Amino acid sequence: MSLSPPIFLKEREENSSRLVEIQQPQTTSIAAEDPLQNLRLASQEVLQKAQQSGRSKCLKCGGSRMFYCYTCYVPVENVPMEQMPLVKLPLKIDIIKHPNETDGKSTAIHAKLLAPEFVNIYTYPCIPEYEEEDHEVALIFPGPKSVSIKDISFHLQKRIQNNVRGKNDDPDKPSSKRKKTEEQDLNDNKCKETTLKKIIFIDSTWNQTNKIFTDERLQGLLQVELKTRKTCFWRHQKGKPDTFLSTIEAIYYFLVDYHTDILEEKYKGQYDNLLFFYSFMYQLIKNAKCSGDKETRKITH
User: Fold this and answer.
1) What is d(CA 168, CA 152) in angstroms, rounded to the nearest whole number?
2) Are 139 and 224 in contact (CB under 8 A)?
3) Distance CA 244, CA 253 (A)
4) Within 10 Å of residue 135's Cβ, how many Cβ atoms?
5) N- or C-end of the chain: fewer Cβ atoms within 10 A?
């Protein structure tokens, strides 16, 4: 790329803000029947032109791709970076991708493209160590131990208290001193805001998630379960219910609920542009299915 990343990010941020503002206000970004219909998105004209012109070259690896390079995590030559929206997120996101997950079919890349400063993608078995920060990190995964988004802060605070008690559990220290130290540490931690700083998503088919989920480096992390929603993903997993979301859908819905339930602010489409690519592909494939256009379906990977 000819311009430096900071300049690109600044231009994209300004472009994103301007384009979102010209959209007509919507009553909600999550319509009951078609969640993608009322999104407040930046102009997708750049994607329309790219789709018409066909595959283009990745400026990093030289590969021929449509819209973006799923290997280098950058847009291709005919999708200028400054014409893409840039999304600001309230926390960091780590995505752990299964090695057998096909890069070209993964929607996790959309998050990295649209929120590059906030999203990191790791291919299993490469996983960061989270043990020292388990009081500010959560894993999105359903199960009997999972908590709702609105209860995240409560459970993270409990972890802080448990960590303090464990740290001061020294049998050689007099009980009165242990108790005094523990009370002091608990009071100090009460002054600190209990904040979720990072959320982890597993990017794989549901049949492959167990290998990653059971990894000891993820054990012990707070598990969070999303509210039930229907997927719009065109690659529906055979034999699975339509409530099994694609990775980018899961990220988007988590952030929407986090914004309203944790930040306690009205949602006004702040994260809708995370579905910039996804919504365009969805509509493209939907139209192709209606018209019987097999070439269009093939062009989206």
Assistant:
1) 25
2) yes
3) 12
4) 22
5) N
Q: Output the CA–CA distances (angstroms, integers) from residue 103 to 33, 135, 232, in the order listed.
A: 29, 31, 19
| pLDDT tens string 110-164 | 999 999 999 999 999 999 999 888 899 999 999 899 999 999 999 999 988 887 6
Going through 141-289 in order, the beta strands assigned E by DSSP cover 198-203, 222-224
Domain stop point among 84, 101, 118: 84
Q: 200 and 131, same structural domain? A: yes
Which residues span the domain enclosing 259?
87-163+193-294
> Cα–Cα distance between 128 and 94 in angstroms, integer?
9
Rounded average pLDDT over 44-69: 96
Q: How confident is the model at residue 189 (pLDDT cuts 50, 70, 90)?
A: very low
User: Based on the structure, what is the number of domains in the chain?
Assistant: 2
Q: Quote the CA–CA distance of 240 and 215 in Å, as a whole number.
A: 24
- 232: helix, strand or coil: coil
Cβ contact 201:213 at 8 Å? no
Cα-to-chain-centroid distance, residue 3: 27
Q: What is the pLDDT of residues 58-113, one digit of tens each?
A: 999 999 999 999 999 999 999 999 999 999 999 999 999 999 988 888 999 999 99
Specify the pTM: 0.80
Same domain, 97 and 60: no
What is the Cα gyration radius of the chain?
A: 22
Give the contacts of 7 (CB within 8 A, at least 6 positions apart): none
Measuring CA to CA, how many Å separate 226 from each of 51, 98, 252?
33, 21, 11
The SS3 call for residue 211 is: helix
Count the residues in the chain. Answer: 301
